[in-house]
Structures are given as C-alpha cells and as structure tokens.
C-alpha cells in the first residue's frame, strides 16, 4: 500500500488535523502552538505530567497490560522499562481491551512530549513500539487478548472483543507520536495493522464492525497524516455499516443493537441511545467523515442529535449518560442527579465530538459545551493531586451512598481502567482545544493563561493571554507578533457572561458577537497591542427545564463556567445538606479561599434556610404538603466548584438545591 | 427422623399457621375460611384460576421446567400431563432456579384447589409429586440443574445456585398441598429433602447458607406442619449465619455481601439493602423465628427495618426496590418514579413480611401496608385478562421509554419467570390475608366481599361481608352464625379514611380505634345482626416527603386504597401527560366508568393546567425559572387507578404530577 498523497506541509502537533481539502471552516493548532501557563486547565496539565502519567505508567505494569503483550510476544525477556522485573509467564489479565490502556497512555505521553520534551518519556514510546513490533503478527494483526487467549476467535465476536477499538487507539497513539516527531516505529506498527484492516474489511469480505466505535476517527486521522485514501474509505465503510444489522444478536441480550449503536442507520437516528461513550465516539467519526468527504447528510444528522442531546440528555455539568445499567443514555429528560452515570470517558468523547462540529461550522455553541464539560464533568474526574479518578460523576451523593459499581469517591485505578489514560491524553493535548485559526483570523475559544501561535496566510501571529479565569473575569490578550495589515482576533463571548465588556488598548469596543457567537476584532494589529475582555462572574442561580422531573423545584449555582455544589464538610455545624433550601433571591457572596485539600478556589456563601429535619415515622407521603409547616432557620451555606468536590471527606454533596418558597 | 410433636389439631388451610405455642397475638385462617366473592381481589382470584394458572402450567412445558426434571429423572417416558409429548432429550434449559417455578406453581394450585376443588388440578400435583420422586436422589437431594449440569457442584456455590431456594419452594408447595389435603407424596419428597438439609447443614459440618433466602420460612412452616423441631433449628441456624461471612466473595463482585444480605448480622442492620426480594424473604423468616422461638431481639430488629423501609424506601404504590442494577434497594429517600424497579416479587415478599409482623403485634399499620401493596404495586402486576405480567413496576413511563431489561409493558412470560407463579400463589391464597381471629374476636383487615368463618373459643363465627370497595365506601357485615355470649368484631380503620362512620344495626357506633388501629365492637351478637362501616373515598392529593428528591414539587392522587395515574390515552387531544400540572386545590371528580380494555373502574376527572410544550433548543437550564412564564390552559385531565394502567396502549404514564403554582 502506498500513499496517494503526501502529508500536509505544516505539521500540526494536535489530535485533530483536517486536510487542506476538508470542509473545516477553522484550522486546528498544535500542543506546541498553544501553551497553557496556569489556570485550572494549566494546573491539570502540570498534575497530569508529574502525577497522573507516572501513575499510569506504573499501572501498566501492575495491572498487567504490558505483561499481556509480553506474553503475546512470547518473549519473556522483553522489557519496556528498565526497572521492572515483572514476570511474563502466567495468563492474560484484565478485560479484553487491556491493550487500549497502553495505547491511550502512549498518546498521552506523545502529546506531553510534544508540549515539553522529555527523553525518558520518549523512550517509553520507543520501548513500547519495540514490544508491539514483537507482538504484531506477520499479517499486521495485533491484540494480546486474542493472541494469548483465543487465537481462533479473531474477528469472530466483534461486538465484544474490542479488537478494532484497540486498533483505533493504537493508530491514534501512532498518529500522535508521528505528529510530535516521536519514534517512527510506532507508526509503522499502526500502519501495518491499518493496512491489514483494509485488506480484511474494505477489500476483503468480512462484513463486521467493532462493537465499540473508535477505530473510525483513528482511521480518518491516519488518512489525514498519511494521505492514504483507503483508511478514510474504511472508516466510511464502518460508519455506513451501522444500523443495518451488521452486529448480530450478541450473547448478552441487554447489550443489543441500541447498546452498540446498530439499531438505526446513522442518518436516521434522532437521539443518542445505548452506551454513551460508544455513541459519542461514533458521532465524532461521523463529523470527521463529513469534514473529509463533504457528505452534508452526515453533518446534518449529527447536528440534529447534538441539539437533541444538549436539550434533553445533558447534565448541568456537561456530563452524559443517565444510567449505570449499560453505561447508557436514558430517555429524554431523564437526568437524575444522584444516579447519574456521566462517565468520564463520555465527557471526553463529547469534547471530541463538539470540537469537530466547531471545526465544521464555526459556531460558538460547541465551544460553550466544551467549556462546560471541561470545567465541570471533566475537571471533576481527577483529584487535586492527580492520583485518583472518578469513573462515574454524579451530581448528588447521599450520606448513605451505595453503588455496587462505584464507591462514590475517586479511586486510584479501576479494573476497567478506560478513564484515567483517556483523561491523560485529553489533558496533555488541551492546548489543541483552546484556539483555532482561519487564513485571516485567530479564534480564541477557551480563555486560558498562556500563549497562542497561529499561521495566518499573511504571516504568523503570536499572542499572550493573561487571565485568572475562572476565579476572576478579566482576560488580557497581548499581540506579541503579527503580520502586516489587517487580521482578526475572534473571541468567543461565553453564553454565561451576562454583561461582557471589551477594550482595545484603552478604547472600549462594543461587544456585538457575530452570528456564530464570536466578537470579531479586525485591526491592523501592532506588536504590544492589548485587548481586554471583561467577563461577568456574578454568581447566578439556574433553573432546570420543567420536564426534567428529577430536579423539579430546585436551583443550582453557577459562576462563570463553573457549576457549584454543596458538600457536607463546608456547612455550619449540625446542618445537613439535605435540609438546606435556597430562595431565588438569595444573596450569593463569592469568597476567595484556599481550602485545605482543595487548593485555590472561590467559594460562594449562600443565604439559605435550614429546614428542621423531618423525623422518620410512617410513609413519606401525606395529604397536604410537609414543607410549608417545617420550621426553618436562616443560615449561611457554602458552595464550592463541583470539580473540586470529594477532595476532603466522603460526606453528602448536591448540586441541585430545593428552591424556596415551598408552597401548597 | 421422627416428629417430636404432632401437627396442630385444626388444619388451617393457609400459608402461615403459627403453632399454638407461638407468640402470635392473632391466629390465621384458611383459604376455605375466608372466601372472596368479588371486588378487585376476588376478581384477581377468578382470573388467576381461569387464565393465569392454565398459562403457568403451559409455560412449565414450554419453558422447559418439567423437561429439566424429566432429564434429571433420566426417565424419558415420565409425563406429568396427559396431553404433552415434550421431548426430554436435550439439555437443561433456563436459569438455575427453574425448579422453583414449578414449586410456586404447585403451591398456587394447592391453595386454589383448597379454595375450590378441581380433580384436574389435583392430578397435576399428584403427577408432579411422582416426577419429583423419580428425580429425588437416595439421600433426599433434588435439583434438576445440579443433577443434570453440575453433579459435582452440589452445595459448592450456594451464593448463586439457589439449591436451597428451590428446596424452600418445594417445601412450601408440599406444606400447602398437605394443608389442603392433597397427595401426600409431595410432602414425603419435601420432608426427605428437608431431612437431608438437616443432616448436612444442622447436624453436619457444612457452614453454608443459600444466596437467596426462602428455605428459612419454608422450614418454619414445615416445623409448624409436622412438629419436627430440627426444621425450626435449621431455619434459625441459617438466619444466624447471615452477616458473619458465611458467603465468601462471590464470582460477580457486584453481587457481594450486601446483595446477599451477608453484610451484617440480622440484629445489627438498620436498613434494607441489596437485592430486595432476598432481603424481604429473610425478614419474613426472622419474624417467623421470633413467633416460634420468642426471641424478642429478632422481632425488634425486624420492626426497626420495617419502620425504616416504610419511611425511606417505599414507593407510594407499596413497591420496593429503587434500582434495576442488582434489583436492589437504593439509598434512603432514593425513590425515582421512572426508574423504579419495584419488582412484583418484592411486593409479594413485603406482604409476607408485614403479615407476620401483624400476627406478632396485632398492629393495623402492617395491614395498611399490605392493603396499599395489594391494590397497587401487586394488583398492577397482572393484566386485566390475567395473561400478561409486570416484573418491573415503575410509577412513570415516558413516551420514549427504553429499558434494556424491561419493555415497559406487561409480558406473557419471562426468561427469569419468578414473578408470574409467585403472583399466582399469593392470589390463590388471598383469603388468608383478609381476616384473623383471637379466642374472642374476629379481625377484619381487608374489606373484601365474601364470607369469613373463624373458630372463637366459645364457638364458630360466620360472617358475610358485602362491599363494593374500592369503588364505593360502604361495608356491611352480617353475622350469619356466632356463639353464645359476647365476642368482638374488630375492624381495621384504614389510615386513608379521613372520616369513618360505623353503625351496628341502625345504631351509630363511635369510630374510636384502639391503640392498634382497630374498631372493636364487642356485643352479644345475634344471627342477622349487621355492622355498617362507611369509609371515606373522597379523592385526595398526596404530597411527598421533601427528602424524596425525585418527586419534589409534585402531587399524586389517591382514592381509598387506590393510587391513581395519568395515562396518555385518557387525556384530551393534543395534551401531553408531561405538560399537565395540578394545583393543590384542584377539583377532583370521581366518575364510574367501564373503560374498554380496563374493565370496571372509577376514573377521576381532575382540573388541571396544560402548559405549552417547551421547544427543544439549547441546554435545559437557565437563569430564571422557565415555568412561571409558560402559558397554560385549563383542561380536564383524567386519572385511572394505577393497577389498571397499560391495559390499552403503550403511551406515557405518570403517578406524580407537577404541582401548581410554579414560582420563582
């Protein structure tokens, strides 16, 4: 197989790099183009590099991911890290998709090395590539589970074996490594596997698709990197095969066609159903295919589902997936805060999808959802120290919380460890999601302190962004370099900012966003010019749509991009979170704080009423409301950003608070 | 093994018959002592006999339960029904507890034959007993799964194999058959198995308990029937072994100690957790043991958990179990109406438990919960025609309802078919749960048209009860026979009846219930005397406890013992159930109706507001409430008794309705 076109000239060190021919209305930037120097997201990157990634690498040994591959290589001596003496005798360990943890980890490492070089990390990629080369079969196939446990089962049970899901993550890791100039051997392994998939599933007769979408976006990226059209065609083939009965009745009936997104052809489905992460990865692929093929019907159906998801199936935090059972989307407006699943991987997948829609349309609403998801559902998934993670991200925890599949607290690792390395690969590539460019404009989607470099057609632009968001509302952007003549600085006006002000130098600029939601500042910019953007961080109470039964009669608290919550540990002595209620006119006072265990934060002191506890006696139903006659006393309750919860004790927490006055 | 005491002299043809020495403050009656001649419960018995039981018998062939036993018997020719020629070659079919479906069916048939003799049904018991004799091993063991699939696995994996759960149902069937004078062979089989269990688990060294409680109550009943103390001791042994690590870490970690009620010793647990049916069966056994042993600590802990369950984990319908996952109880106050599991078997188990507590204490609150459960969670489980069943009993179904494990509509049968035969055995023994007696009083707990016969110490009493409950509120009780001198007629005063009137003959009697909740009418009753009891069927709006987050800001509608719901099919054209809201002062008008498909009913016409649908656009959260400014129009909505829902189409349904006024 030979490339039909060379890679694009400028190497963008980022995870999504549409070709020059693509329908993208904006172009992406690399992790070296956009550097984060602080803020909540920048801090995530530091913690990721210094705590999470080292933990992840260690877990690859502890949990057996590397041993599985060593077993498969039949090479007891193969050793990808100098200080390990793990045995490679024994049996395959963990779930069938163990290889994918390594691949996501490799991708995380690649982006992080692309951000800040590190020979030891680069060596991990090289050593892994060597190991994978040893495991890879002559025909290009590579999967430690199949090779060690079920060699005859290759492609026999695609709804569950994750063989192509793993292949997809291998390909994404290899693309990342190639884009940041890492060891070329990883890309070689990935291409051999991809070529093999092309032989079997595109040129060959195998009618299957993987039960877990993922290889589709990966193949599109591999096409983008290599110019090899067959990869794009194979991705398209896989997407078109969905919903036409490609997956037979799987062994576990609960995990049927809906679970696997094989219930309807992609152009026909109106709403996301089934396993949330699978559904969302598939959507990212659908938009990728639109971008590269120009098939408008793909964009149209995906936008339709995005609108439906946002309006009816999205938690306030951006979390997705209402049910533990099948890790699935629920019915429309089924959004229970307590039993929310809101898997961390679903938040990540949502960002992947929205990002592609942003590239395809240029509309700020996609960046709005990315911001909401990043600062809440996603940021909450990692502890302050970067060493513990949420898989499940509820919006409420009762004092007697129990879930068989979730302790309600972050954990160091998981038997199904899909989330932590997924977090790591997103965090190490966060710069990619901050800004984009067109030929004549730089778009800032997320306001993060740091620098942005973008190649406009008239020449490169360099900007410095200074901001203390999300803690205070001012953003100052300085032009460090720019081409001659006019070009545009485009700033997203966040939907949450009620009153937004802008100045260019000392000159007020009217904040009148264009039809896509961006404030366009077109000037003949000079080095040293500054733009000041004042976003409105007044705390606000938000009310849910009346069809969301599970949070009727409640309010939640937001400030800037942050959703807040009430943790038991912050409340006055003797006041249970469950007895707090808030009036719509309540005084809300932001207070800068350095909470032990939480780090820097701004808490909000809230005028609230603590209702007397209602003693347990008889059925909890009666004629006449029970609230109106309960004595209450005025207290000051304290809310902290939701992403910072569970860094102290394990008490009750809730985002949605009963709204006063009760009535009846 | 020989009996240490003979069976009690008077044979009570009922499922719970404490010994004369037991701590029961009331004595139970048989299915021939209390005959139902109509009403909702009487109608259930008719449909049960003429539709459900025949369907159940057919399913024992279709689903393979009988074939499994024939396989085990190694007797291809054995045939328990004249018109079947099912093959007995092949493999074991269905879940491991398939035998229990037959046993529950046998128990249902036994009670029904005890009610109204039928030679064909009696012959089914005889034929089954023959088959079981053929299957039973020399040492008394009997289990078609173990014998055909895993002969070496006997008692090796008790947390999942249900070997003693099945044994328990066999014993209960045999006790039922013996009490109604059925073929003695079934009791012989059951006793041989019970004696074997005594050898292994009481006299022997095996430390195990069954993962699914059930054998415990059965052993107590077998003790009651036979007087053999070892059965009682074994039941006690099993209960005492719970919560002390008797069940090791089972293969599926999600089904751990909590799921199996092995997390805490029974005297220590404060709240019901884990699999609801298992937890509830265990409680029934705990109270049975109190009754027969007098160990007050058992009654005390079980009452404590009952109070906790009623106050924090019980649905308005009496349904129990908030989670599909693990079919389990949720956290306190976690009572989502849409994702309620409320398994039919849990409603049945709740009735078993409350009934024993009623016998132990004489308190009407237990009969109150039984009534609520019978008329709502339980009655809803069967279709009007008796041919379809709910396993899961939610209080809300959205128009786009989807559950992987439940279609949201009744089904003819189930792969795990525990519920239908469980329904059948309760329905055929319903008379048992209507009335009790003491030496000098007859207690009426449920007001059902029919006759009651009770042996007071001074002589037998016979009563006729005439009532059209739950459709109208009058109950007339006539004394058909009674002994000389004073005796007491005790009538439960239902907690839902706000204004209750009583007359003896034409004489008003003050309705002043005693401390247990019963109106005691002590007279020298004469044949033909009548008591008239006027219960209050004014429809009422009920409000949930403010800690039940899932139904905050809603009201539900009740009338008498019935919970109502709003089905889409009954609403005015163009009005979606999801847009209806009700003010606390709304006019509620009961209307007698004969709804096609539902049968006789009283619907309630409700003054309601239909809010304009809120179009899908953007996130369903915003600053400022969305309800206050939605235009609404006055409509008349229609509610039907919840137990009658889903007898027409499959549209939306809800019990809890948004409460007006919205505010903010």
From TrEMBL, chains A, B:
Domain Non-reducing end beta-L-arabinofuranosidase-like GH127 C-terminal positions: 539-658
Residue ranges constituting the Non-reducing end beta-L-arabinofuranosidase-like GH127 middle domain according to the UniProt record: 442-536
All copies of domain Non-reducing end beta-L-arabinofuranosidase-like GH127 catalytic, residue ranges: 33-431
A GO BP entry: carbohydrate metabolic process
Superkingdom, taxonomy of origin: Bacteria
Name this protein carries in UniProt: DUF1680 family protein
